Amino acid sequence: MQESLFDLDTLGFERYRSEANLGAIATDDLARVIAEHRTLYTILGEGGERSATVRGSFHEEETYPKVGDWVRYEPGAKGQAVIEEILPRVRLLARRDADGEGVQVMVSNVDLVGIVQGLDNDFNVRRLKRYLLLVQESGAHAVVILTKADVAEDPQSMKAEVEKLMPGVPVLITSSKTGEGLKEVAALFTTGSTG
Asked: First vs last Cα of the chain: how many Å apart?
C-alpha cells in the first residue's frame, strides 16, 4: 500500500460534500475511485492508494463504481479493499451505448473536462461539438485543448473556428514539443477541484 500524499479535501471531497448536500459524515472509510480495470479498481483516500473489488451486491453495469466516484470501503485481505457503497453522484459524464438503448458512464463528479484534439490531420470541429454537448449535459465545465500546434500551418485560425462554433468555451493551443500553452493547461487544475 502506497502512503497517501493527499487528504480528502485535496481530492475534492469538501466541494463534493457541499454539492451533494451530505452535511457532516464520517470519512474514515471514504476514498475516491481513480482508475477502473474491468473488475478491479484503484481507490485513493487518507489511508493511501489501494486496489479494490466490489461487494457482490453490485449487479448492473451502470451501478458499478466509475472513475470519480466517492465510495465507502472495508479493508480486505492482503491490502485489497472491498467497495461497499457508492455515494450519490452529482455530475455524470455519459454517452449512449452502441445499440442506443442504454447509457455508458465514462466518469462521475468532475468539475472540468478537457476536450483534447490534435491540430494535425485528425482535426474535426464537429467531433469537438459532439464532445462539448456531452460535457454540458453532465453539468461540468469544458475547455478545449488543441495540441500539436507545432505541426499546424495556422493554429490561430483553427482556434478561431472552434471559438466561433463554441462561444464562451475556453480554447487553448498547446505543443508538447515547444511547450506552448502547457502552463495554461496546468493552471486549470487547482487543489480541491477535479478535472
From this structure: 25
pLDDT tens, residue by residue, 95-130: 887 777 777 888 999 999 999 999 998 899 999 999
Residue 68: which of 28, 113, 115, 132 has the closest Cα? 113
Torsion of the alpha carbons at 107, 38, 31 and 68, rounded to the nearest 10: -10
Q: Bridge-partner residues for 143, per DSSP?
A: 114
How many Å apart are CA 123 and CA 77, to the nearest integer? 48
**Tens-digit pLDDT profile for residues 23-60:** 888 888 999 999 999 889 999 998 889 999 998 777 66
Residue type, 120: D
Q: Which residue has the cell 442504454?
A: 102
Q: What is the pTM of this model?
A: 0.83
d(CA 82, CA 77): 9
Query: What are the backbone dihedrals phi and psi of residue 13, each rounded to the nearest 5 degrees, phi first?
Result: -65, -40
What is the C-alpha to C-alpha distance for residues 93 and 110, in angstroms, rounded to an integer?
8
